[in-house]
Amino acid sequence: MNEKIHHGRNIKRFREMMGVKQEALAHELGEEWSQKKISLLEQKEEVEEELLRQVGEILRIPVEAFQNFDEEQAINIISSTFHHTQGIVNYNPTFQNNPIDKIIQLHEDKIALYERMLKEKDEMMGKLEKLLNR
């Protein structure tokens, strides 16, 4: 059960988690890139380290995440890290420097940022409405 880690599939997973469209990633990678080329990249089992590094910089994800993330492993880590007892979830902090924890934190930070941006937008809309109704 020692399957190779699929770099392209990992790029796609993390890109989608970060809410980045293929077109946007292609634009960031440069003129020679297109949405179709990103789609083909995401189908490749193995991607050159330099390209993984570039994608990692754009998505702000460590290269190791693309190289090491394996869904089977993640499920095993999650199931051995979280224990359900009497309806309470106990976290076992043995995986403190885990790339998955970093990714989850990035995702939570992104959600917090969106919430702050929405709040600021609502406040600005309120101010604009007050100005218009004078």
In summary, what is this structure?
Helix content is 66%, strand content 6%.
Question: What does this protein structure show overall?
Answer:
- The protein is mostly helical and 134 residues long.
- It has seven helices and two strands; from the N terminus they run ααααααββα.
- The protein has helices spanning 7-17, 22-29, 35-41, 49-59, 63-68, 71-81, 99-132; strands spanning 82-85, 88-91.
- Strands 1-2 form a two-stranded antiparallel sheet.
- Helix 2 crosses helix 3 (35-41).
- The chain is elongated, with a radius of gyration of 20 Å.
What percentage of the residues does DSSP assign to strands (E)? 5-15%
Helical content stands at: 55-70%
Count of DSSP-assigned helices:
7
Compute the average pLDDT.
81
Q: What is the end-to-end distance?
A: 70 Å
How do the helices and strands follow one another from N- to C-terminus? HHHHHHEEH
Largest sheet: 2 strands, antiparallel
Task: Specify the structural class.
Answer: mainly alpha
Radius of gyration equals 20 Å
The strands making up the biggest β-sheet line up spatially as 1-2
Give the oligomeric state: single chain
Detail the poorly predicted runs: 81-96
Any idea what the shape is?
Answer: elongated
Per DSSP E runs of 2 or more residues, the count of β-strands stands at 2
